[in-house]
Amino acid sequence: MKIKKLIPDSKVIPKLRTVTVESITNVGAKTVAKAEATGNFLTDVADVFLFMMLVLRGTFSRKFEFREFLRQCFQIGVKTLPLITITGGIMGLVLTIQSRPVLVDFGAVSMLPGMVAVSLIREMGPVITALICAGKIGSGIGAELGSMKVTEQIDAMEVSSTNPIRFLVVTRVLAATLMIPLLVLYADMFGILASWGGANIKGDVTFSLFIAQAFGAIDFLDLFPAVIKTFFFGAVIGMVGTYKGYHAGRGTESVGKAANSAVVLSSLLVLVVDMIAVQITDMMVL
Amino acid sequence: MNIENTQSLNHNTFNSLSNDPVINITNVAKAFAGVPVLQDVSIQLYKGENLVVLGKSGTGKSVLIKCIAGLLRHDKGTIDVFGKDIKTMRSREIDEYRQKLGFLFQSGALYDSMTVKQNLEFPLVRSGKKLSKKEMELKINEVLENVGLPEVINKMPSELSGGMRKRISLARTIIVDPLIMLYDEPTTGLDPVTSDEISTLINDVQMKYKTSSIIITHDIKCALKTANRIVMLHEGMLYREGNVDDFESSTDPMIHSFFH
After folding, report:
1. Which of A265, A277, B218, B232 could form a disulfide with B239 if both were Cys (CB 3.0 to 4.6 A apart)?
2. Nearest in space to A166 (alpha carbons), one of B118, A158, B95, A153
3. What is the pLDDT of residues B62-91, one digit of tens each?
4. Is the pLDDT of residue B2 over 50?
5. Nearest-by-Cβ selection for B126 from A148, A153, A161
């Protein structure tokens, strides 16, 4: 259907002749789609903000679910220990085996314990442990809450006069926030132990000397910012996992999607938080 | 309660019960993303009755009881429960209302990470009743006896069959002595024998706990066995209301296709 020419013989606006109702409709549809996409994005942002506010309010509520919090601390903390033991051990061992030849070349092999300890405590320990936890804990929380949503367990909880945000979300976010720093410290310790083992594969250094040199190289500004940022890593992993699970769709497919997106987003956010933390630490040192 | 001894049909037992409306639904409408699911629905649930809501899949039955339970907010109209519209209730009032409410979900909705005993303890601890540990154990054993499954107390939900899960779910809802029961497709996915047992249990719960119940179903056997009154929804609107005899003798093609 063609629109009649508004100015039949005009050379100024000849393109008017080719304008159709369909093309106007297409432009309209694209504009509406873009507006909807923008609206959806803003709705998502508002959703995340609202969710964080609810979690914050639930955290300081008098009806705190202490037993569930302890259960989650056990689930997140104790049940992740074997994985973190292996991760910490491999980190320390690999770092030692890779660094030793270079330090030997420069005649600085005595700096090995200090270098490994600083690397582990400042960066490798927190980030790698947090990424491993994002995979195990983030996906676990996302899948658990997602399946609870799909099978109406969250609705059942609400009908039982129980606030699901307080029972399911707050407990998991707080447990992750508290347990991940402890897991990181454990991974650091185990990494240093493994490093001593690695140093003794081709060298000979006593345990007491290795530990004295390792801890001698660490100062307050190595440890303090590294520990503080792990609390944020824990909060991010807990928050993303619970948000994705709590907002899963209705089908079983959405459980997988919730778990997957919880891992991807929390891993990404761990790196973003780490980058910000490094910048802040850098400013503190200067 | 003994499942085997229960009467076959329920629709003659209601005449002795009161006619006070417990739930008064007036002109309720609900839409999702602009698509209307419920339109101008008005239904009353009277004290002590089993009201069956019939209708094809997708006619808004489940949405209706989720609105009644306050899990979804209706867009228009009022749902008065014990004389107050749930839309105007504060969160504390909603909690108090839900302590008088039992909801049997279509999937059972047992908490996967808890044993049967913990599933039953969960609403009891949060019901506002201050019970001792011994009283709680007695109550748990009582409801498990009532649903005929005292032996599964320490099992996980994953170890139970579909029918057992439904029964435990029913036990979990009646453990708080609810005044109102909402059943969302209670017999879906069950074999005919187990479906019949669940229908019998629904009648037993009505008699023993004096509950007023809304039963959402498209299972005609369940509807016939449990209903004191039936309403039919079609395309989100109230299509017909009456007793079992009205529906059975109806020549309306829509109703006829359901009943025959």
Report:
1. B232
2. A158
3. 999 999 999 999 999 999 998 889 988 988
4. no
5. A161
- Is domain B3-112+179-259 annotated with CATH 3.40.50.300? yes
Residue carrying structure tokens 């569930």: A68
State the pLDDT at residue B12: 45
CB contact under 8 A, A147 and B112: yes
**What tens digit of pLDDT does each residue of B129-182 get?**
788 899 999 999 999 998 889 999 999 999 999 889 999 999 999 999 999 999
Contacts of A155 in chain B (CB under 8 A): 66, 69, 71, 103, 105, 109
> Chain-wide mean pLDDT for chain B?
87
Place of tokens 């008098």: A62
Q: Is residue A91 within 8 Å of A124, Cβ to Cβ?
A: yes
Beta-carbon separation of A155 and B109 below 8 A:
yes
**Interatomic CA distance for residues A123 and A109, integer angstroms:** 21
Predicted confidence (pLDDT) at residue A134 exceeds the cutoff of 50: yes
* Best residue in B72, B110, B111, B121 for a mutation probing chain A (most A CBs within 10 Å): B111
What residue in A sits closest to B91 (Cα-Cα)?
Answer: A161
- Does the structure show a pLDDT above 50 at B1? no
A86 CB contacts (<8 Å, ≥6 apart)?
Answer: none
Domain boundaries, chain B: 3-112+179-259
Residues of chain B found within 8 Å of residue A159, distances taken between Cβ atoms: 69, 71, 98, 101, 103
Q: Is the pLDDT of residue A32 over 70?
A: no
Higher pLDDT, B109 or B15: B109
Rounded Cα gap, residues A51 and A237, in angstroms = 15
SS3 for B212? strand
Interface-testing mutation among A149, A161, A167, A171, with chain B (most B C-beta atoms within 10 A): A161
